[in-house]
TrEMBL record, chain A:
The lineage of its organism: Bacteria, Bacillati, Actinomycetota, Actinomycetes, Pseudonocardiales. This is HTH domain-containing protein. It comes from Pseudonocardia halophobica. It comes from the Bacteria.
TrEMBL record, chain B:
GO terms for biological process: proteolysis. This is Clp protease N-terminal domain-containing protein. Pfam families: Clp_N. InterPro entries: Clp_N_dom_sf (IPR036628), Clp_R_N (IPR004176). The keyword Protease applies. Residues 2-184 form the Clp R domain. GO terms for molecular function: peptidase activity. The keyword Lipid biosynthesis does not apply. Keywords: Hydrolase, Protease, Repeat.
Length: 71, 188
C-alpha cells in the first residue's frame, strides 16, 4: 500500500487521531498565513483597526497577537 | 528528575529526543527511549542493550517497530492537509511567490511546528522514566542506569512494552536478569 492510499484509507476510518491531527495542521497553516498577511498589511501602512476589520476579529485581539512581533 | 541517572541513561534520554525530532514527532514516546538504549555509548553503559540482545531482541527489531509507528502517527503536515483537500506545496509556492523563500517557515507558527527545540515526553514515556527510578530503588541500586530505564519501559504501559511483549520479554524476567547482573558488575 502506498502512503497516499494509506492516508486515504485512514481518512475514511473515522480515526479521531487522524482527523484531529489534520485540523491541528490546518490551524498551524492558518496561523502562518495570517501572520504573513498581517505583517504585509502593517508594512503597507494599514492600521490595526483596518486589519481587524478585514480579518473579522476585534482590533484588540489582532493588536495583542502581533504587536510583539514588531509589526 | 535526571540527577541520579548514569551518564549512559542520560545519553539515552537525549538520543530519544533526537530520534523523535528526526521523525518529526510532536512528543517523545517509549519506543524512542527503547531504541535509544541500543545507541547509548559506553562500556557497562550498554547494559540495557546487552540485556535486550540476550533476550533475543536486536536493535533492528525495535527500529522496525518504531519506523512503522512513526509512519502511522506522525504523518507530515502535507499529508494531513491533503486529507482536507489542501495542497500544502501549492500554498507554500504562492506564499513564497508573494513573500519570498521560506515565508511560511519564518512565521511564528511555522517555527513552532518545524524547528522544535524542546520535544516533550508523552505521558507513557514520562511514566516509564518515573518507574525506572522506582525499579532502581526496588533493587536498592543508588543510580539509575540504562537497565533501570529498560525496566521502567517494561513496567509502564506503552508502545515499548507492547513491542517487547510481542517478542516474549516480560518485566519479571528482565527484573531477574538485572538482579543477577547487579551481583556481578557495576550498573551502566
Amino acid at each position: 500500500m502506498t502512503d497516499a492510499t494509506a492516508v486515504a484509507a485512514a481518512a475514511s476510518s473515522k480515526d479521531p487521531h487522524v482527523g484531529l491531527a489534520a485540523v491541528a495542521a490546518l490551524r498551524a497553516l492558518q496561523e502562518s498565513l495570517e501572520e504573513l498577511q498581517v505583517g504585509n498589511a502593517r508594512a503597507q501602512g494599514w492600521s490595526w483597526a483596518q486589519i481587524a476589520g478585514v480579518l473579522q476579529v476585534s482590533k484588540q485581539a489582532v493588536h495583542k497577537k502581533y504587536r510583539r512581533l514588531g509589526y | 528528575m535526571f540527577e541520579r541517572f548514569t551518564q549512559a541513561a542520560r545519553r539515552a534520554v537525549v538520543l530519544a529526543q533526537e530520534d523523535a525530532r528526526e521523525r518529526r514527532q510532536a512528543q517523545i514516546r517509549t519506543e524512542n527511549l527503547l531504541l535509544a538504549l541500543y545507541d547509548a555509548p559506553g562500556t557497562p553503559a550498554s547494559t540495557a542493550a546487552a540485556l535486550l540482545r540476550r533476550a533475543g531482541v536486536e536493535r533492528a527489531d525495535v527500529a522496525a517497530g518504531v519506523k512503522r509507528l512513526a509512519r502511522e502517527e506522525a504523518a507530515p503536515d502535507a499529508e494531513k492537509l491533503a486529507l482536507l483537500g489542501i495542497d500544502l506545496d501549492e500554498v507554500r509556492r504562492q506564499a513564497e511567490e508573494t513573500f519570498g523563500p521560506g515565508a511560511l517557515e519564518r512565521t511564528r507558527a511555522g517555527k513552532r511546528r518545524r524547528m522544535f527545540g524542546h520535544i516533550p515526553f508523552d505521558a507513557a514515556s514520562k511514566k516509564a522514566l518515573e518507574l525506572s527510578l522506582r525499579e532502581a530503588l526496588r533493587l536498592k541500586h543508588s543510580e539509575i542506569g540504562s537497565e533501570h530505564v529498560l525496566l521502567g519501559l517494561l513496567h509502564a504501559e506503552g508502545g515499548a512494552r507492547d513491542l517487547l511483549a510481542a517478542r516474549g520479554v516480560t518485566l519479571e524476567a528482565m527484573r531477574t536478569a538485572v538482579e543477577e547482573l547487579g551481583r556481578g558488575q557495576a550498573s551502566g
